[in-house]
Amino acid sequence: MENWTVQYQMCWLPSPLSSEFRTILSLALAPAADLSPKRAAILSAGARLFMGVGYASVSMDAVAKEAGVSKATVYAHFSGKDALFAAIVGDRCAAIAAQAEELAAHAPSAQGALRELGRLWMRFLLHPDSMAIHRTVIAECTRFPDLVRAFYEAGPARGRAWLMRRMTEEQRQGRLRADADPAVASDHLMGLLRGELYLRTMLGGPPPGEAAIDAVVDQAVEVFLRAYGAPAEVSAP
Length: 237
Description:
Blueprint: H1 19-29, H2 37-53, H3 60-67, H4 71-77, H5 81-105, H6 110-125, H7 128-140, H8 145-154, H9 156-172, H10 182-193, H11 196-202, H12 210-228, H13 231-234
Helix pairs in contact: 1-5, 2-3, 2-5, 2-7, 3-4, 5-6, 5-8, 5-9, 6-12, 8-9, 9-10, 10-12
């Protein structure tokens, strides 16, 4: 199996959250409103089962029963478990990316945009649903390499591609160095966010509070802009 770079964490969401973040997370963690009722029911049922009993223990028959549809209907929407799992991950990542785009588009500076994005993404990644999905992938990765591939392509790879586009847009606006590689810059930002706090929590440490997460994001953005920010952005509020 190829060496997939998968973003994992094992921690609980800090509380309380602002009403804005609660709204964003609820949108990101729920099926899209424009889905057909049957497809939405299948996605919700699949998510509950995968997070409840693990990937290996879930059958398409069980998904059909949980969703209240026929097995033929499940297969009409998804070719197999890996496709269903990928759709669950992909839909949630697409929803959070749309919210992130809205936040970034209205930020007055690169520093403001990156802080908003960092806080949103960290809280999304630390949500119990995200944690459960990642736990499923970790538990099943050696037995089901197709699951890992589906997860990576639907989740981390899409998120990385979105962040690269965001970096390119910040460059276009003159807020990041024009000579920077958007892919490298994206990887560096994510690496800064997933530091000691992330590692300790992933290994079963106590759940971090909002202030601790905000501090990690602020420090990561400060360091990132010292390397990649346009001169005017390094000292922007």
